[in-house]
Design brief:
Length: 368
């Protein structure tokens, strides 16, 4: 552990693949002032390559704040053509590419083969047997799969780790806090922001005064990914959990950022109302002991106010890394129901991936 702390105190060179996109810009904004990591390269498609970052993003800035001058003037590399240079310069690459899944898989594997730790926001590798999918506060122990992956593939320094889909990050932490009561069946409806589709109100005018009841692939991810995160490592692979059974409906709503969820749960051993609230308020994750810079001061916050959490008021809690919970009440069909909220491009995308990278470093997986 002490080696990894020393590594963390020196600046660790990192690169962002897909740096010009919505999630990529979030990565850059979080990493440009990070205490452990220093951006050495930004990369995107060949359309953005060879020009300064400021020019590559000039017509699609997602924040009105400028990046550091050093970043604004950084030349953008082509993700594929620049692989030799980027993998020499950076020890960790953060991936936020939007392209064909097989192409993303290949790119991530090439970077890992060349010795980089690839921390991916993409779904491409979420079900690859030896790739861990980690939500740090819940399954940080799945980092053990990195040793298996390196052995399987003959990689010494490189590896691929992925974060789960943004839609599950509001309700899965609450179910984790309630896990000792045996949640058996879960019905969840998510109300997802347009930034989750990489859109703004300008680029998605059809969402004004509207709700779109279908997000391709989202319900399947929302039902299945929690099972892998709760899974056990047996015979060098993750054996997905069998419970709870989750039924998800995911809809797109006219908000810029923040995915809210309404959840009903049936338990084996139903808790009391006070036990539900205490389990959330007192939830302590193993990550609390790691002292990671991006970990929220408090992971789960319970509001004793029937009108909270609200997307616009609460999505930025603890710099967008906290989860807000409220409205625990009796469910006449199941046992209990509640509402919860997480920030989709921070906790659900770039912030969650940066936290995951910090965990990997802290656990000593970064080698010189
Ligand atoms: N938005 C969210 O809340 C969210 C949450 C979780 C996961 N995700 C996932 O994260 C990924 C990125 O999402 P996003 O919303 O940031 O997408 P985006 O705004 O469309 O950005 C996509 C990035 O990929 C690059 N790219 C596209 N085609 C490429 C190619 N052929 N070669 C190299 N680079 C290429 C783009 O570069 P150019 O600018 O040069 O075209 C850009 O940097 C997606 O897979 C998405 O599903 C998004």
């Amino acid at each position: 552990m002490s080696d990894s702390i020393n590594q963390a105190q020196t600046e660790i060179p990192v690169a962002v693949l897909g740096a010009t996109g919505m999630v990529g810009q979030r990565f850059v904004s979080l990493l440009q002032s990070h205490p452990w990591f220093k951006i050495v390269n930004v990369a995107a498609s060949e359309n953005s390559a060879g020009i300064p970052y400021s020019k590559a993003i000039q017509n699609r800035r997602y924040s009105n704040k400028n990046f550091n001058p050093e970043i604004e003037s950084m030349q953008v590399f082509d993700v594929i053509k620049g692989i030799d240079i980027i993998s020499k310069n950076a020890k960790i690459v953060f991936c936020a590419l939007n392209m064909d899944k097989q192409q993303i898989k290949d790119i991530e594997e090439k970077y890992a083969e060349k010795g980089c730790i690839v921390v991916s926001n993409n779904s491409a590798h979420r079900w690859t047997e030896d790739v861990p999918m980690i939500l740090p506060e819940i399954n940080s122990h799945h980092t053990q799969l990195i040793d298996i992956q390196r052995k399987n593939r003959g990689w010494n320094k490189g590896c691929i780790v992925v974060k789960p889909n943004c839609s599950i990050q509001s309700y899965m932490p609450v179910l984790e806090a309630l896990r000792h009561f045996g949640p058996e069946e879960v019905i969840v409806s998510t109300y997802q922001a347009i930034s989750g589709a990489g859109k703004t109100f300008e680029t998605m005018p059809e969402i004004n005064d509207n709700i779109i009841p279908f997000i391709p692939g989202e319900e399947e991810k929302s039902e299945k990914e929690p099972m892998r995160i709760w899974g056990k490592i047996t015979n060098s692979r993750i054996e997905p959990a069998q419970e709870p059974l989750i039924s998800a409906t995911c809809v797109r709503v006219p908000v810029s950022d923040g995915h809210l969820a309404s959840v009903s749960v049936k338990f084996k051993d139903p808790p009391t109302l006070q036990e539900c609230i205490s389990a959330v308020e007192n939830y302590k994750s193993v990550v609390d002991d790691f002292d990671l810079p991006s970990a929220p001061e408090k992971f789960l916050t319970y509001f004793n106010d029937e009108s909270r959490p609200q997307t616009a008021l609460d999505r930025d809690i603890y710099k967008g890394m906290g989860i807000s919970v409220g409205r625990f009440r009796k469910d006449p069909v199941m046992d209990w129901k509640f509402v919860c909220l997480s920030h989709n491009t921070l906790r659900g995308a770039a912030g969650g991936a940066v936290l995951l990278a910090e965990l990997i470093v802290k656990k000593g997986y970064l080698k010189n």
